Amino acid sequence: MKFLFIILSLVFLDNSCSSSKINQDAIVLEYSASSRSFYKKITVNRKAILTVNKRDNSPISNTCSSNNWDTLIKKLESIDVQNIANLEAPSKDFLFDGAAMARLKIIYNGTTYETQPFDHGKPHENIAALVKEMLSISENIE
Description:
3 helices; Lipoprotein; Mago nashi protein
């Protein structure tokens, strides 16, 4: 009897967890960095990776593999998205052209969550893994 109760409990728990999953088709990740002589914008959704390396250029487009997407989602799950606007940049060299100014945007169901500006290549530790993965993925499609 206990065994049956445990099995039924696991089935119900599994069903309740699956219904609370987020809609991954409604997620868009966007990283941008720019200075006087540098520009990069990476936009990733479940289907595509778009990279622009120069202002006013057309994006380089590639399909987002399920492996890449799953990796990005795992990195995203560790981030408190609603509080990314409160993250302090570890350095502010972008204020005097010592580094390109970067931002991370996470768009979900039309709501945009955006970081404060930070130095390109030096994001806050809470978003560093996601930013690094986005940069890596975009460099591999160029």
